[in-house]
Specification:
Layout (H helix, E strand, L loop, with lengths): L15 E5 L2 E5 L8 H11 L7 E11 L3 H8 L5 H4 L1 H6 L11 H19 L24 E6 L29 E6 L3 E5 L4 E10 L2 E11 L10 H4 L1 H22 L14 H16 L1
Antiparallel strand pairs: 1-2, 3-8, 4-5, 5-6, 6-7, 7-8
Helix pairs in contact: 2-7
Length: 289
């Protein structure tokens, strides 16, 4: 180029960034949302996970033939879990709802909550979701686009692995494997499930009206050595299977929505309250713009 070209006037566009407990959040908006409250909630709960001292053990990219909003709708309900996620429902309680929680399941949840609260208190951890059903997110009424919570696993599980057992060195500041799961979500394109020994982050990138690029990353402690401290075949399958099962469901939903005979139906107030919340949150963003 010519010598008198002012390169400073022709650089890349800048973006707003914030860091919270090892995670970098990027906003492309000229006026990004206030991140302070999100940082306080996410940062406080995520601090013991030590993701700032983690490394990527595995990354898998997916091309999902579905609109990104259908991918989020799938994530925001567990109506489909009992039939489609056999490994997930063995480890978690949130696929139960008020309409199908038996007295036995309720007692198991209460016992797991009581046990966790007593044990975690000495470690400075707190259980923040103690009921059946998924934690409410997003909250359209309060315009909350972020959420984080810690919840107990089913008795006998200490990690979201196929056998429920620790499969890698403890992450961050954990001194015991029994810490439940940390869950983080931010609209419009990120969620994370973290166990005592590894964390799994998922990022969405809309690539077209019926195409979403999804990146899933598995994180372990920065000093963990593959082959001696952990094996990918132990930490990958739980969320790899769950994710790929979901992508297939999303693609089916997209094909259904494309049908000339498609008609929207009502949401289940027991199992799809978060889908309703997501739709209302999304429409609210369009109105504000």
């Amino acid at each position: 180029m010519q010598d008198d070209l002012d390169k400073g006037k022709h650089g890349l566009h800048s973006a707003h960034t914030r860091q919270s407990s090892g995670m970098i959040f990027v906003s492309l908006s000229e006026q990004p949302p206030n991140f302070d409250d999100a940082d306080e909630q996410i940062g406080t709960l995520a601090a013991p996970q030590g993701m700032e001292r983690a490394k990527v053990a595995k990354m898998i990219d997916y091309d999902v033939a579905s609109n990104w909003k259908l991918v989020w709708e799938n994530n925001r309900e567990c109506y489909h879990c009992n039939v489609n996620h056999p490994q997930y429902i063995k480890a978690n309680f949130d696929h139960y709802n008020a309409d199908d929680t038996t007295k036995q399941i309720k007692n198991e949840i209460e016992a797991a909550t009581e046990r966790s609260e007593k044990k975690w208190a000495t470690s400075g951890l707190a259980i923040t979701h103690t009921m059946t059903g998924m934690a409410q997110f997003p909250d359209a009424d309060r315009d909350l686009w972020y959420a984080a919570n810690r919840t107990a696993l089913v008795d006998g599980y200490v990690s979201e692995t196929m056998e429920g057992q620790q499969a890698a060195p403890l992450m961050g500041g954990y001194e015991d494997a029994d810490v439940g799961t940390l869950r983080i979500r931010t609209m419009p394109n990120f969620w994370n499930h973290s166990s005592c020994d590894h964390a799994v982050s998922t990022r969405l990138l809309p690539a077209g009206p019926q195409q979403t690029k999804v990146r899933v990353l598995w994180l372990v402690d920065e000093n963990a050595v593959e082959g001696s401290d952990y094996n990918l075949e132990d930490i990958l399958p739980f969320w790899q299977l769950t994710s790929e099962q979901d992508w297939e469901l999303c693609e089916r939903a997209q094909r259904g929505a494309n049908s000339s005979r498609y008609q929207p139906g009502p949401y289940s107030t027991y199992k799809e309250y978060n889908v309703d919340g997501f739709v209302r949150w999304y429409l609210q963003q369009l109105i504000e713009e």
